[in-house]
Design a protein that fits this description.
Helix 2 packs antiparallel against helix 3. The protein contains six helices and two strands; from the N terminus they run H-H-E-E-H-H-H-H. The model has no long low-confidence stretch (mean pLDDT 90). It has a two-stranded antiparallel sheet. Helix content is 76%, strand content 2%.
């Protein structure tokens, strides 16, 4: 073109295209990465809780911490998938998926709150065990590798419970029929 300058802006237009592709692909953005992160988190827990050693590599409290991070982020990604898919399907932006609809039908507010309560109670029990260990040590120094095996899963369960409760409200709100 010699008559006028190019009107395309590389970064802005590229970002707008990528943004559109991401918004219309909740599976690729949320579901698959979330499922992988949850699987890695569960694997990390399976290795770290019993303190497995593989070829000289010890899976301990630090592995638990990374596994918890993977579980929390993965769980949030899975919930974000359900929320975005429910909204996008209700607005006609994506075709409804009967498998997702089945999950949303089962995941009612009351069930979600019950699961959230159970996770928070289980997490609190684990945290109380850690506090009791500290009490038994005269509120002095602790063996952190041993204590963190209670604290990290306890805090993770509690946080998953809170995420579940909040997500249950959001999903229930999206499931309400509009007038």
């Amino acid at each position: 073109r010699r008559a006028r300058a190019p009107h395309l802006r590389t970064f802005r237009d590229g970002w707008r295209t990528l943004r559109l592709l991401l918004l219309y692909n909740p599976r690729g953005v949320f579901l698959f990465p979330g499922a992988v992160l949850v699987a890695l988190g569960l694997l990390g827990y399976a290795l770290a809780l019993p303190g497995v050693r593989v070829r000289g590599v010890a899976f301990d409290a630090h592995t638990l911490l990374f596994a918890s991070l993977a579980l929390l982020v993965g769980f949030q990604a899975l919930v974000s998938f359900l929320v975005t898919h429910a909204f996008a399907a209700s607005e006609g932006l994506v075709p409804p998926d009967r498998r997702v609809r089945r999950i949303l039908d089962v995941a009612r507010l009351e069930k979600g709150l019950l699961v959230a309560l159970l996770a928070c109670v289980a997490g609190s029990v684990l945290l109380l065990v850690a506090v009791n260990q500290w009490r038994l040590a005269g509120f002095g120094a602790l063996d952190y590798a041993r204590t963190m095996r209670w604290v990290i899963p306890g805090a993770t369960l509690f946080m998953l419970g809170v995420q579940s409760a909040l997500s249950s409200f959001t999903l229930s709100l999206l499931a309400m029929q509009r007038r």
